[in-house]
């Protein structure tokens, strides 16, 4: 199914007022398991740094929820959030101006081409690389754009069932993906090729997370893809499933997994 039209519909609903957009971010933070894993890693990175003047790149910012969360941790951090979608960038710039987050700027950029040498202390790429064929070029550009000691944090599907693909005869649940998922050793090798010399990778979305993802994301998206009338049913659906998803997310984010459908990767320059 095509995920972008559904994302656009959601954006039209929650972009109506700043209050609704804040609510949307809050709901995404609770529902999306990858957010639990990413926030855990970002909290660890941020310890002792909130009083420092740092530069951060949100490489593939989407709705801007990670930029929103990071910009709330420190007013001293300057955050550049980039994406290829003009309308989404314009909406995000307008929202962040409305709420007074002047340390944030959104810009239209192609990660395959974008490079800002020795500029950023942290780069963040959440569910982006599965959409870009020229991944080594992107890793190389981000490596060049980081300062010495800077870190890249990646969240992406793995080849252990990422994108809900479990066999050679299956295709991605989301057609916008150009790859179903990374082998954990493959992505580390590509990062080394790009110049990173210290890399840590671990699985996310173990068994608890996979159940949560189906309940909180896959089934609702399938319903919305079938008909927009399911927007009416959705609140009642989440009223039943939401507590179970929260518990499953907590278990998954608090556990180490020998395998999983997602990857959390950290790489330092």
Which keywords apply here?
Rossmann fold, alpha/beta, 7 strands, globular, 18% strand, 9 helices
How would you explain this protein's 3D organization?
InterPro entries: SAM-dependent_MTases_sf (IPR029063). The chain crosses the membrane at residues 229-251. This is Class I SAM-dependent methyltransferase. Pfam families: Methyltransf_23 (PF13489). This protein has helices spanning 3-14, 18-31, 33-46, 65-71, 86-98, 135-145, 184-193, 207-226, 230-253, and strands at residues 55-59, 78-83, 104-108, 120-126, 146-157, 198-204, 262-268. It is α/β, with parallel strands linked by helices. It is built from nine helices and seven strands, in the order αααβαβαββαβαβααβ. The protein has a single domain, classed as Vaccinia Virus protein VP39 (Rossmann fold, 3-Layer(aba) Sandwich), CATH 3.40.50. The protein starts with a helix and ends with a strand. A seven-stranded mixed beta sheet has the order 3-2-1-4-5-7-6, sandwiched between helices. The longest helix is centred in the last third of the chain and has 24 residues, at 230-253. The mean pLDDT is 89.
Q: What would CATH call the architecture?
A: 3-Layer(aba) Sandwich
Largest sheet: 7 strands, mixed
Instruction: Label the overall shape.
Output: globular
Q: Structurally, how many domains make up the residues? A: 1
Which structural class fits the helix and strand makeup? Answer: alpha/beta
The CATH class label is: Alpha Beta
Can you give the mean pLDDT?
A: 89
Query: How many E-type strands?
Result: 7
CATH superfamily: Vaccinia Virus protein VP39
- Written as H for each helix and E for each strand, in order along the chain, the element string is HHHEHEHEEHEHEHHE
The value of Rg in angstroms is 18 Å
Q: Beta fraction of the residues? A: 15-25%
Helix content: 40-55%
Low-confidence stretches: none
Distance between the termini: 37 Å
Q: Looking across the biggest beta sheet, what order are the strands in?
A: 3-2-1-4-5-7-6
CATH topology: Rossmann fold
Number of helices: 9
């Amino acid at each position: 199914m095509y995920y972008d039209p559904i994302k656009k519909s959601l954006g039209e609903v929650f972009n109506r007022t700043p209050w609704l957009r804040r609510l949307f971010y809050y709901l995404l933070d609770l529902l999306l398991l990858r957010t639990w894993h990413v926030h855990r890693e970002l909290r660890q990175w941020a310890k002792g740094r909130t009083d420092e003047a740092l530069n951060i790149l949100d490489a593939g910012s989407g709705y801007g929820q990670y930029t929103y969360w990071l910009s709330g941790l420190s007013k001293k951090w300057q955050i550049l959030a980039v994406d290829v979608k003009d309308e989404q960038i314009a909406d995000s710039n307008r929202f962040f101006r409305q709420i007074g987050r002047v340390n944030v700027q959104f810009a239209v950029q192609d990660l395959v081409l974008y490079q800002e040498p020795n500029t950023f202390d942290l780069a963040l790429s959440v569910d982006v690389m599965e959409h870009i064929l020229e991944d080594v070029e992107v890793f190389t550009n981000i490596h060049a754009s980081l300062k010495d000691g800077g870190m890249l944090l990646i969240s992406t599907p793995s080849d252990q069932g990422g994108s809900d693909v479990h066999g050679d005869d299956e295709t991605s649940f989301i057609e916008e993906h150009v790859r179903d998922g990374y082998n954990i050793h493959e992505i580390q090798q590509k990062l080394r090729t790009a110049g990173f010399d210290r890399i840590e990778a671990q699985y996310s979305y173990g068994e608890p997370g996979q159940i949560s993802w189906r309940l909180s994301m896959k089934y609702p998206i399938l319903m919305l893809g079938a008909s927009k009338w399911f927007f009416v049913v959705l609140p009642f659906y989440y009223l039943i499933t939401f507590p179970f998803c929260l518990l499953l997310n907590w278990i998954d984010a608090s556990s180490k997994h020998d395998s999983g459908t997602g990857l959390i990767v950290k790489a330092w320059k």
